[in-house]
Specification:
The protein has 431 residues and is α+β, with helices and mostly antiparallel strands. 31% of the residues lie in helices and 25% in strands. The strands form five sheets. It has an eight-stranded antiparallel beta sheet with strand order 16-13-15-14-18-19-17-20, sandwiched between helices. Strands 6-7-11-9-10 form a five-stranded antiparallel beta sheet. The chain is globular, with a radius of gyration of 21 Å.
């Protein structure tokens, strides 16, 4: 009997013929050969944290949870080789124990390394990039079961760091790490107009800057994270303040509020205004990964697009106009982040400094109208959607937005001519 698989956001459900838990590259290779011979698809999943159907299959579903070890560490270069299924939650403290860290992270950490890399997961930072930029080598099982090693000298290196799962099953990844570091975190409320007036300074003068705008208000929460001099003492958030801010208010209370306003949507503007008014400033110093990552237990759906930085005021202005027109009331804050241009072929940051604008909808509420309206705004400003977050665009759009799109598709044709790794999502976005 087929099993049921669904993603974290409950936006995708499939019924794979079989679920396998390989423990080695050799086992993955054998399973790929089996799938190819049977003419069925095979896909790998990590934490199932993508909101799209990028990992969905009705064939063989590979869960890489048994492939979760650090398998190599070069002290001279600070490069670390890991199995693809290791989660960022598992990896970060192990790196810290080695005196190492990833230079940038997103705000959650359940994702597997392969999943985070393959979908272009990113954090924020004026001169920093997504996690895929730290990849210096991958081991890939191709459509015929061959094990391929791709490093910086390989012609396909640019395509290998954000693969969308279309080129094969990633089984090992080598990451370029940096010495472990502490971050000084400063969080405080700020009026949205002030934040936008000061945006160039706020982004440029901080190692990592982001803000959250509460729809139907002019209020925002800004976050500034900066490296501290060597020898600075850790001063993490106190146990009670952590429980109050990060567990109770941001999760337990937020879940309860969203359950109520999912039925009483007219209350949302007032609730957002009260919630934003309750925000207070806080500062602390902690290991980088403890600052980057926050607990997220409230389930939601998300759409996020990268756009040229100069588009930000117009994009937020158009979203505000849509809210003011009364189309829908939205309880989740809008998240705004920034990254520098990179050279990864299918990265949203390819050859462009970006602003990222992410919209969310509570899991018990319909997201389609809101996300469709947001997508129309984002695409008018050359938006590139995060590959793991909801959008309805297809290959004709991406061929215009990615200079290396046709090159990537050509490599896919070579590595997976039978489309053993394909699904409806990949057929839509890649053709």
């Amino acid at each position: 009997m087929a099993e049921t698989w669904h993603n974290w956001g409950r936006s995708v459900e499939t019924h794979p013929e079989r679920v396998a838990h390989p423990a080695s590259t050799a086992e993955v290779s054998a399973l790929v050969r089996e799938a190819a011979a049977a003419g069925i698809t095979i896909k790998a999943v990590g934490a199932s944290h993508s909101f799209t159907a990028i990992a969905a299959t009705d064939g063989i579903l590979l869960k890489l949870d048994r492939m979760n070890e650090i398998i190599g560490h070069d002290t001279a270069t600070s490069r670390v080789r890991v199995q693809a299924g290791i989660s960022l939650h598992e990896l970060n403290p192990q790196l810290n124990a080695m005196g190492l860290a990833l230079p940038n992270l997103g705000d959650v950490d359940p994702q597997s390394v392969a999943g985070a890399v393959s979908t272009g997961t990113h954090g924020t930072g004026d001169k920093l990039h997504g996690i895929s930029k730290t990849v210096v080598a991958v081991q890939l099982v191709t459509g015929d079961g061959e094990v391929l090693e791709i490093d910086e000298s390989h012609a396909w290196f640019g395509a290998s760091r954000v693969t969308l799962g279309a080129l094969g099953i990633i089984t090992e990844v080598t990451l370029q790490c940096v010495p472990a570091f502490l971050l000084h975190a400063r969080e405080e409320p700020m009026a949205l107009p002030e934040a936008l007036d000061r945006i160039d300074t706020l982004v440029g003068d901080n190692d990592h800057f982001e803000f959250y705008w509460f729809p139907h208000t002019e209020k925002a929460l800004i976050k500034r994270n900066n490296r501290v001099p060597e020898g600075t003492e850790r001063k993490p958030v106190g146990r009670f303040r952590h429980w109050l801010d990060d567990e109770f208010l941001s999760n337990t209370a937020f879940e309860g509020i969203n359950r109520v306003v999912a039925r009483k949507r007219s209350w949302i503007p007032r609730v957002n205004n009260i919630a934003a008014s309750m925000l207070s400033a806080r500062e602390y110093v902690d290991d980088s990964y403890n600052v980057f990552v926050s607990p997220r237990t409230v389930r939601f759906r998300e759409s996020e697009f990268a756009m040229p930085r100069e588009a930000l005021p117009d994009v937020l202005g158009e979203l505000k106009t849509w809210f003011d027109a009364g189309h829908e009331r939205i309880s989740f804050p809008i998240e705004v982040r920034f990254t520098a241009a990179d050279d990864v072929w299918m990265s949203t940051g390819h050859e462009r400094d970006n602003v990222y604008v992410a919209v969310h909808q509570y899991v018990r509420s319909d997201y389609q109208q809101y996300f469709a309206a947001a997508q129309d705004i984002f695409t008018a400003y050359e938006g590139r959607p995060h590959w793991g977050k909801i959008h309805t665009l297809d290959s004709s759009y991406f061929a215009q937005r990615y200079a290396k799109f046709n090159d990537f598709v050509a490599i896919r044709d070579q590595l997976d001519p039978q489309r053993t790794f394909s699904n409806d999502y990949l057929d839509r976005v890649l053709g």
